[in-house]
Amino acid sequence: MQLFLGPNVQALEQEFAELCGVKHAIGVGSGTEALHLCLRALGIGPGDEVITVAWTFIGTIEAIAHAGATPVVVDIDPATYCIDPQAIRSAVTEATAAVIPVHIYGHPAAMEEITRICQEYDLKLIEDAAQAHGALYQGRVCGSLGDCAAFSFYVSKNLGGYGEGGMITTDNDALAYQLRLLRNHGHVEKYRHQVIGYNSRLDELQAAILRVKLRRLQGGNQRRRQIAALYNELLAEAPVITPHEVEGCVSCYHLYSLRAPHRDELSQYLTEHGIGHQTHYRMPAHRQPACKQWGLECLHLPETDKIADQIIQLPIYPGMSDAQVQYVADTVCKFYAGARGCR
């Protein structure tokens, strides 16, 4: 009996690599550890700077910090909430070693332009694809667009297990070898350890569950897209900004995020009407006490700060019915327009 890295993990790795169109998928303990191991395997550490965004889960910043590198956060594109490529270019210094674009909410970042910048400055490119299982950028699956990519299998993700888990994807054989060493104590054979590594092994139970759920991922993503389209239609006359999908991108709609005036009052109204919702990242990473050591609170990130007071996530999941979508949308409309609704 194997508790981790057994036949289910190996099969899941092969199946996930096929989904992403890459040569290697390496199962690890979490999405945060996936990012950390990517940085370590690429040789990024003390003295290096890594450019990313503050509009992300704190794990993106933690991974950089745990590698010993310095996080440099820049502003976002106000249409997609992903990293602004021009902000990357402005932030590059002699110490910059890598860029981590976050495919936030399941919408791909502007990878063509980001790749061009990384090639120009000889920077490593690590996709934070924790929310982007199955999302497409110009016909390619997220996870196949950089030097490597990190996925999370946290329970709430489009592909989530019954606990923690993560995956790294890459086409680089040497990098994949290093990642497999690092995730498992540098182990090469019994009682022989080639490098100082970590305990970040995906377990067999999670892999078995994920293999079953992986077969349903594409269908679930398609249903999420249908729900998002219905929300867009029903909320067209409300004074909110619905998600924008860039041409050539196919979002997997991990979350359906509105920019909504009077967000906090709307949140209370939804709660009163029995509607679950979230206000993710209302305190962006650069405002978090944990990030004061890098002076990030002094940064001027106008787009990030603006949406932190506006963003609200409405319910979206494959099992949601059209009637439930209608009820949520009608409730939002009634908040803004009274009993008349907004249709």
Give an overview of the whole structure.
- There is one protein chain.
- The protein is α/β, with parallel strands linked by helices.
- It folds into two domains: 7-214, Type I PLP-dependent aspartate aminotransferase-like (Major domain) (Aspartate Aminotransferase, domain 2, 3-Layer(aba) Sandwich); 218-340, Aspartate Aminotransferase, domain 1 (Alpha-Beta Complex), CATH 3.90.1150.10.
- It is 36% helix and 15% strand.
- It is built from eleven helices and 14 strands.
- The chain has helices at 7-20, 31-41, 59-66, 85-91, 111-121, 173-183, 204-214, 217-234, 263-272, 302-308, 322-337, and strands at residues 24-28, 49-53, 70-74, 96-99, 124-128, 136-137, 140-141, 148-152, 166-170, 187-189, 192-193, 249-250, 256-259, 311-314.
- The strands form four sheets. A seven-stranded mixed sheet has the order 1-9-8-5-4-2-3, with helices on both faces. Strands 7-6-12 form a three-stranded antiparallel sheet, with no helix packed on it.
- The longest helix has 18 residues, at 217-234.
The CATH topology of the largest domain is given as: Aspartate Aminotransferase, domain 2
Whole-number count of domains: 2
Using the CA coordinates, give the radius of gyration: 20 Å
Number of strands: 14
Topology summary:
Blueprint: H1 7-20, E1 24-28, H2 31-41, E2 49-53, H3 59-66, E3 70-74, H4 85-91, E4 96-99, H5 111-121, E5 124-128, E6 136-137, E7 140-141, E8 148-152, E9 166-170, H6 173-183, E10 187-189, E11 192-193, H7 204-214, H8 217-234, E12 249-250, E13 256-259, H9 263-272, H10 302-308, E14 311-314, H11 322-337
Parallel strand pairs: 2-3, 2-4, 4-5, 5-8
Antiparallel strand pairs: 1-9, 6-7, 6-12, 8-9, 10-11, 13-14
Helix pairs in contact: 1-7, 2-3, 2-6, 8-11
